[in-house]
Write a structure and sequence with these properties.
This protein has about 400 residues and is of the alpha+beta class. It is about 25% helix and about 15% strand.
């Protein structure tokens, strides 16, 4: 959207959607937004905490000790160590307490930071100035990392609203000794430096993007917990083990492989083992592939591996039961399942109105100009004399 609160940077232009520059608080503007399904309920006595969103996907919870009238989209100044920071209220009401319980945050802690005030015009101006420094700091820091030959990738830089601290988010496969880097950065930018290591999935959530499905990345819109994704999830779903297709923008396996995994595992339990061979008088048949949605299994003989014979699950179990009794079936074609092909409707073009070339000019006809010239020539020609009998 290009608003001041998104990862793409503040461009100062009004978006085409909600036209609120990221402060609508409904949908489309905020990363990892939460739908407040308790918004219509009356406020309880425990409604003293608010959820505040900062740059990208970073969210924290603060105590509203002064009982300020806050709503989603308000810009507030909150306590930090040291100084203060500015963020946008992303959630209020009873749902904040449930979110804190989900994230295992104890509200009874005395060290919970507080909301200082609603952000003034001066706070917002300083906040925007700090935001403009992030791009330049990111480029210069990457140059310094290359000069020091550190095996780390700097992902993002976030300045505190009062410009007293800068947080550097980086990715590294091993432990990095960045003491010299911190000294160089502190001397150059004159701020307090904080290095924070994140994973590749967290980086994809902070940067954002469009997935192969055509939608925004799940990690940047709603996904908060990153569960382990293994190649067995692809095997259960009958997917080819192709790293180029199964990997997301983070370089890891796509998180969406786990979404339907439970349904596939429940369906696979009704299928007989693919390792069992079917014995017939024609030969031994091997399993080739399965279709979980249609409940079909394809088998082929060792003598003709390219000829696939489709069988329903019940028919496969029937053949297996016969083989367990020490008998062999005559042929799998007798148990084969052939889908009935429905005849496609035929549309007859009666008047020619469905012809794509019906509006094209007929090039075989002579132009009208030539016709007129020929008519004139015929008029000027003398009429032939009648022949004598």
């Amino acid at each position: 959207m290009g608003c001041g609160n998104c990862s793409s940077g503040g461009c100062g232009t009004t978006p085409k959607g909600c036209k609120n520059n990221g402060n609508c608080g409904t949908s489309g503007c905020n990363k990892l937004e939460v739908f407040d399904w308790l918004a219509g309920m009356s406020r309880s006595a425990g409604d003293q905490y608010v959820e505040v969103r900062f740059k990208n996907t970073r969210k924290e919870y603060f105590l509203n000790s002064d009982k300020l009238s806050l709503s989603v989209g308000d810009v507030v100044a909150v306590e930090t160590m040291p100084g203060y920071d500015v963020g946008m209220v992303s959630l209020t009401g009873e749902l904040v307490r449930l979110q804190m319980k989900k994230n295992k945050i104890d509200p009874s802690q005395k060290s919970t930071p507080k909301v200082i005030r609603k952000a003034t015009e001066e706070d917002i101006n300083i906040w925007k100035e700090a935001h403009l420094l992030e791009r330049e700091t990111l480029v210069k820091t990457r140059q310094t990392i290359r000069e020091l030959n550190l095996s780390m990738k700097l992902s993002d830089v976030e300045y505190q609203a009062d410009k007293t601290r800068a947080t550097f988010y980086y990715i590294a496969e091993q432990r990095i000794d960045f003491r010299q880097l911190i000294k160089v950065l502190a001397d150059r930018f004159r701020v307090r430096i904080e290095m924070r290591q994140i994973g590749s999935r967290q980086e994809a959530g902070r940067v954002g993007g469009i997935g192969s499905c055509g939608r925004e990345l799940c990690c940047s819109t709603w996904l908060t917990d990153f569960r382990t994704v293994s190649t067995s999830a692809a095997r259960y779903q009958q997917l080819s083990i192709n790293p180029m297709k199964l990997a997301g923008q983070c370089g890891k396996l796509k998180c969406c492989l786990n979404y339907e995994l439970d349904s596939y595992m429940d369906a696979v339990q009704h299928f007989p083992s693919s390792k069992i061979k079917l014995k017939t008088k024609k030969g031994v048949a091997f399993h080739q592939k399965s279709d979980i949605f249609k409940g079909l299994m394809w088998y082929s003989y060792a003598s003709a591996p390219n000829e696939f014979i489709p069988l329903k699950i019940d028919r496969v179990k029937e053949v297996i039961a016969i083989n367990e009794k020490g008998k062999e079936v005559e042929d799998l074609l007798g148990f084969s399942h052939v889908s009935q092909q429905t005849a496609e409707p035929v549309f007859e073009n009666v008047v020619g109105q469905d012809d794509l070339t019906r509006f094209d000019k007929d090039k075989s006809k002579k132009p009208k100009g030539k016709k007129r010239r020929n008519k004139r020539r015929d008029k000027n020609k003398p009429s032939p004399k009648p022949s004598k009998p």
